[in-house]
Amino acid sequence: MYSSSVADAPLIREPLHAPVAHLIRGGVVEGIHYGSVVVLDAGGAVHFQLGDIEAAFHPRSALKPVQAVAMVRAGLPLDGELLSLTAASHSGEERHLAGTRRILELAGLTEDDLRNVPDLPFDPVVRDDWIRDGRMPSRLAQNCSGKHAAMLYLCKINGWSLDDYVDPGHPLQQAIAEIVEDLTGQRIAQVTVDGCGAPLFSISLHGLARAAARITAAAPGTPEARVADAMREHAEMASGSGRDVAAQMRAVPGLLAKDGFEGVHVAALPDGRAVAVKIADGASRARVPVAAAALVRAGVEPERLTEFAGEPLLGGGTPVGCVRPVRALGPVTLSACA
What we know:
The chain is an alpha+beta fold. It is built from ten helices and eleven strands. The strands form two sheets. Strands 1, 2, 3, 7, 8, 9, 10 and 11 form an eight-stranded antiparallel β-sheet that branches. The chain has a three-stranded antiparallel β-sheet with strand order 4-6-5. Strand 10 and strand 11 (318-325) form a beta hairpin. Helix 1 crosses helix 6 (171-184), helix 1 (64-73) crosses helix 8 (223-233) and helix 3 (94-107) packs parallel to helix 5. The two termini are 37 Å apart.
């Protein structure tokens, strides 16, 4: 079971990653992806681990469900699609832009009040259409705009200042940091700046899995359950059409899944089983099959995860290999080149 106490911060050191996936071409190992994997059982104990699950690392956007829980605890009144968008790394589709505008309207604010960095939509098809139409990068299109709009809305509700809401010393960010430590069960190792401009809290991979488990196993009606329900019921709002995490939540009943830049993936089931993955080189081509293999290790039926075995490696336009999780993770039967 999870302790109510908060442990010391994880050490900031070079992580001792291990091989987690092989790039197979023509039956020969052409390359190796290193990383770390942790699988927790329903009681919160480590069921399986590979690599370094205790070193401090940056969870990137995989921490957004925790940030959303913190905001709900602090009074954010959103539910459904808009709460899912609060925890999103969205693709920049029209539904995401409209949802972000709606949150800003509820706060009586506009896109000009956002402090995230202007960007093009994350989805390559949407981005190409955006460029073709002559549209410029915008704060609304940037994949974290839903989170930032919700942060502004919460600041407006609580009477907190708006211009500096991304400052680590701001009451909003202090409230989020407190819940990060509560749900991960450990002190934050370091605070830096995420790609969107908001504070990024360094924790351990073990702590990230623990936080996801506590969110999905929480009692109905709690802030944790509200966030989990919103993301599961509106998976495309938390990511986008065609995104692997949305497909994963549709494929596995009750699963909550969230990705993050630089090869981070976290997923948890309603009974508290959870997995967390960090691919050292940040490659999604390894993240997806390794996360699927970790979920099988957690007890998910392999047939529910076959679409996440990884894309085949092509040679002359013909499949000649794949990215396959190492045998320590297994099962090999999930692999596209098994």
